Every structure is written in structure tokens, then in C-alpha cells.
Amino acid sequence: MNTISRIPAANATGAHRLAAALQRHGVKEIFGQSIPSALFLAAPDYGIRQIGYRTENAGAAMADAFARISGKVAVVTAQNGPAATLLVPGLAEALKASIPVVAIVQDVSRRFTDKNAFQELDHFALFQGVAKWVRRVADAARIDDYVDMAFTAAATGRAGPAVLLVPLDVLDEHPGFDPAAPHRNATLGTFPLDRVSADPSRIAEAADLLAASARPIVIAGGGIHSSQAWRELAALQDLGLPVATTVMGKGATDETHPLSVGIAGYFMAPGARASHLRDLVTDADVVFLVGNRTNQNGTDSWSLYPKDARYIHLDIDGNEIGRNFEALRLAGDAKLTLTALVAALKTGDLSGLAARRPQLEEKIAAARAAHAEDLRRLVDMDAKPIRPERLMADLDLVLAPETITVADASYSSIWIANGLTARKAGQRFLTPRGLAGLGWGLPFALGAKVARPDAPVVCLTGDGGFGHVWGELETARRMKLPVVVIVLNNQILGYQKHAELSLFGGFTDVCHFEPVDHAAIARATGCAGVRIENPADFLPALKAALASDAVTVLDVVTDERAHPPITSFEGREALDY
């Protein structure tokens, strides 16, 4: 349907054209502040709601999380100049994490271009390194064309950000309605937009390799979530293949499955869930990488993955295949390709996998029991200041299958990845692992809540990361987005201090903060705030917060000496202070 027909052609402006095009792609929310005003004034006529952030960097993170949870292309807006520059960090994260976000940036009027107009900036140069596609629409009559190009760029192939620059006067222009012009009716607002399976001959070769292997392992990354290939991965696992995930891949498989290994990567020291299963990776003879960038953290600085194994690598982006580990190339969509691979495996001899399965399941079960014993031995769960491991154990008790848990970067991402259990496959654990910048936790939670308002949303953040985005508590209250924010208040930049101690035996002055009462900050914005110093008080406060309709901050005083089981920290005496 040509949605612009609801506005008479004589009255329709470029802003109406833009809103109608967004509506055609299923957009119901735009993350934006006041600019482009013309768009936001037109948007309600097309059933589009404005989610008003306080800062553009937070708005871009909200859009990112919205896309991850909803499976839809997210839209964020900004004004030209300084506002546009603040989109850069969020778009960079989305680019590295392969998340489809369309940024609509109002530019100076066409007649003012290159005249040093107010806040004029070279936005092409600004966004070139953080977006798949950057264009400027110079004619209101072509808005539909450019919006379709932006959504296509964002959602096809390896997803990522697209930036559409729209001059102010284009939004105000009356292009008229040309009945002879071709009408655009396509809906391009979900992803993956296109699905292509890998080469059938290579799928058959991969099936033969896996069936004949003695010690195979699958390591799934965030590409499983992007492709929504959870059932297909589960079908592969059910054939007898153990599955580990990266941090971004957490939730790709049900972690209670007897063949689920947990997180494989840079935190597999004692205290890690997968610490007793490291050899399943290091001793593997065939490693099947699915939607896995083989980045530094995911491979423990490329030291974890075996050097002499055969690799099979499935990825939508052929440039990632073989980047760090030469592999049998399966370039294609994970969902389609895994479907074909499972079918190929079922036609072959799986007796070897079946014979080894009981022993493998026994090994994984024993490793889980050993991990529980490690926690009892290594961590005083009743200690004061409170240990993050205690918080994760309590949080894990109350997580419903539909609960969405998000984390800020740094330690927070590791605490939830290592300490919580994905009891059902799906995209419900969000971490900013594209670039891992601080300040993503609260905006991620708000974007997730917009995408799935009926789901409980819990955010874990350190006091360092939370300090970047306190102001968005007002956004949460104003937009009626009741999320629970757990602040690990240890008055330090934890990862920074511990890394410096580990590497240099000392730390820089800026690692320490003055005391801050985050619960009081929450109350000052009209949200609920609870300060917790006793470990026994956390679980009741968490349950109350989850049952409440209020935005709630749980400001938990935690032990600054606590650090996750990062392998590079193992045996570092400087951390025993």
C-alpha cells in the first residue's frame, strides 16, 4: 500500500515521505531527540513513536539493543554536527557486532552547503569508518529510493549501520505526487533480509569431516543470533556434537543441555564454568566455527584454539572465514546452512559420535560439578563487601526464560556470561562486544525494553560504566521503561586497575573514584533506588524490583578485589591484595 496517500499530495512534505517510507518498513519506534523536528511532527500520523534519549551516544546504543532483541532494523536520528559525532561510538559497536541500525542525520540546507553553516560538518568523512553505507538524499522525490537503499544496506549480507543524510530543506520540500512514478511497496525492515546457503559440495565435505572426527567441537558466535538459527544449532548438537559459545554467542544454545560446554574464550581460569572443559577446545581435531569472528577475547589471544586441528568456518561474511584459522569455507546464512548440514550428517555414519556421546556427557556433567565446588572453595559467598559471584548466583535463581539480561562492557559482561545460565536458546543476553565500550549497559536495557515491553529486563553495570549514562534514568522514567539496574559499586575501574596491577605491579591514580550513592541519584530522577551492603539483602531487593513497575537501581557495594576468572590474571600475585 502506498502509505503516503493518507496525506494529500499537495500537502505532503519530504518529512511525510520519510515517515511513510519508515512505516512501510515496519518502523514503529524511532530513537531520537528533537531533530529532525519535521520528521517527528509527521511521525505520529504514521503510527511511529519517538523514544527520546538524553544523549545521542546512548540513543545509538538503545537502537542497537532494540535491533538485537526485535529482529528488526532500528532507526536512530540526530542533528548535524556535534549531535552526529555522538552517534559514532554506537554505530561503531553496531558495525563490529553486525547489528542493523539506520541513522537518519539532518544536514544543513542544500543552499548552505560548504558555506560554514551552523554546525556544518563533513558527515561522509565522519561516518565512513563506522557504517556500511553513507548517502545524502538531495531530492524529496527520491526519499523512498534512499530509505530503501539504507534498509537494504543495513539488513543484507553482514548486517551493520547505514547512514542517511537528509538536508533540512529536503524535509520541508513539497515534492508533489507523480502517479506515473513507480511505487515502492517492499517491506525491508527485518533481518536477515536475504538468506543464502553455502556451497552444497562444501556442506557435504563438512559433514564428512564432522562425522569422521574423534574430538569435534562447535564454537558458536553472535552470528547464530543474527540468523535466528537456534533450532538448527540445537539439531546439530543433538547429533552428538559438543557446543561452546563466545560471549556474544551466549544463549545460542541451551546451557543445560548435556553437550553444552559454556563460554570458550579468555575467562577459563579456575572459577570459570568452562575451566574444566578447556581441553575440549585445545585437544579438538575438528573445530566448527559458526558466526564466530575468532577475535582476541573469544580465542584467548588466539592461544586457545588448537594449531593442528581441521577447521570448518560458517559465516555470512566470507572475509571472516580463514581470517585467523585456515578453514573449509562455508560462506552463507547460518540457519539455511546448518539445516543443510544436519540433513547431510543424517545421511552418513554417525556411529562414532554416538559411541563417544555417553563419555562426553559424563565429562561435561563432572566439569559442572567441579565448577560448583570451585566456587565454594574460592569465593566466600557471604563476604562483605559483597562478591559479584554471590549476586550472579542470586540473579540466576530468579531468571525466567523470558528475562533479558544486559551488561555493560568490562567485568560486567564477564560476570553475566560466566555466572548466569541460558536455560533456553535465544537472544536474551546482550553485551557490547563489538568494541566493548563503557556506558552501554543502561541504554542497552532501555532499547531491549522498547523491543519487548512485556519481558523483564535486568542490567548489570559497574559504577564506572554507569557514570557515563546516569542521565538516561530520566529517559527510562519518562518513557515508562521499568528496568532493573544493578550497579557493582566498588569505587574503581576494576578491569583497568587489575590489568595494570597484573602487567605493571602498580596502577594509575584515575582507577579510583570518590564514593557515590547511585541509589540517591536514582531517587533524584524519580526512580527507585536501594543501596545494598549486606549480601542477604540483595535477593529480596531484586525480587521486589522485578515485581515493581518502577525503574529501580540496586546500588550494591562490592569487593574491589573481586575479578572474573580471566586466564591472563591467573597466578598474578599483585592481584592478591
From TrEMBL:
Gene3D superfamilies noted in UniProt: 3.40.50.970, TPP-binding domain (3.40.50.1220)
CDD domains: TPP_enzymes, TPP_PYR_POX_like
Signal peptide (residue range): none
Entry keywords, A to Z: Thiamine pyrophosphate, Transferase
Top-level class of the enzyme under EC nomenclature: transferase
UniProt domain Thiamine pyrophosphate enzyme N-terminal TPP-binding: residue ranges: 13-125
An example Gene Ontology CC term for this record: acetolactate synthase complex
GO biological-process terms attached to the record: isoleucine biosynthetic process; L-valine biosynthetic process
Pfam families assigned to the protein according to its UniProt record, in alphabetical order: TPP_enzyme_C, TPP_enzyme_M, TPP_enzyme_N
Annotated family: Belongs to the TPP enzyme family.
Protein name: Acetolactate synthase-1/2/3 large subunit
